[in-house]
Design a protein that fits this description.
The protein is of the alpha+beta class and about 170 residues long. It is about 20% helix and about 45% strand. The strands form two sheets. Strands 1-8-7-4-5 form a five-stranded antiparallel sheet, with no helix packed on it. It starts with a helix and ends in a 23-residue tail after the last strand.
Length: about 170
């Protein structure tokens, strides 16, 4: 009898380990069921955007692909960047627009100078949430997690807010 209990416990532990490993091994994890209105496809596009032509990124621009089955206003929110060591940097970005039926993209931008100021090299986004805007309220539809960026961005590629030059002037 005792051997059966030990074997059963071992089987349960192995199954739990296997299911955890399977979830962690995926590029992203869907943590909510897609809705009848729209769903995130799990595909993103990202790039650094230089808006002031100084060869430094002012924004980390991300576009999330969405399959729209009911036209309407939708919102994506993204939170927390992670680096190659698993360290996190809390930041927030969102994008909202009216989208028609079919495959669409929603854009959001992380502020570059804050990435520079944190000396953080982002490799992935912890999560992206999709909402439908219905009668002025955000209706949660879906979340994907651990979304890989196209490459690791170095914080020195981003613009900085201000720096002291050491020069002081008195008029």
């Amino acid at each position: 009898m005792s051997l059966k209990k030990k074997t059963s416990a071992l089987v349960i532990v192995c199954l739990l380990f296997l299911s955890t490993f399977t979830i962690l091994a995926r590029n992203f994890t869907i943590t909510a069921q897609p809705s009848d209105y729209a769903e995130l496809t799990g595909i993103i596009a990202d790039s650094g955007k230089d808006t002031d032509s100084n060869s430094k990124y002012d924004y980390l621009a991300v576009s999330a692909e969405i399959n729209i089955t009911e036209a309407g206003t939708y919102r994506v929110e993204a939170n927390t960047l992670q680096d190659q060591f698993g360290l996190s940097y809390y930041t927030y970005a969102y994008g909202e627009d009216h989208l028609d039926i079919g495959i669409s993209w929603l854009n959001l931008s992380f502020y570059g100078p804050s990435i520079y100021g944190a000396h953080f090299n982002p490799q992935n986004i912890s999560w992206i949430d999709l909402y439908a805007i219905r009668e002025g309220y955000n209706e949660f539809l879906q979340e994907i997690t651990n979304i890989q960026l196209s490459h690791i961005y170095n914080y020195t590629d981003f613009d900085y807010m201000a720096s002291l030059t050491g020069a002081v002037y008195d008029q």
